[in-house]
Specification:
Strand content: 25-35%
Radius of gyration: 22 Å
Number of strands: 8
Helix content: 10-25%
Number of helices: 1
Distance between the termini: 66 Å
Order of helices and strands: HEEEEEEEE
Structural class: alpha+beta
Largest sheet: 3 strands, antiparallel
Amino acid sequence: MRRRLGAVLAAAALTVGIGVVAAPAAHAAPGCWTNDGGIKWYCNNVSGAPVYGTIGNNHLYPDPTRVVGHMYSNPSWFFCKLDGQAWVGGPHPTRWLMTVADNGQLGFMKDTAIYSETDPVRNC
């Protein structure tokens, strides 16, 4: 019985192993960049991504329930990044970036809507 079970498991492992193809190595996204010494940071982003307002009059707390505009440009520019805010997921699960939506409203974009690595962006 043990031999038969061993043979079945070995055949199953071989069958599964044949169908496995090595995944290509993941490449890190290029980082955001600046052309003016760090005042504005440019990042590749999802076109049409929502830009969220702030909580109250404090411009350092994004309000994840209030969309104030959208960002249709790509790349787009950002002032700074904030960590430790409302959960967004992704590699930086609590990171938001301050920007101005295409309609001129100040707000924040979720890090998950940005393709570029946002680590280089200055902190708010």
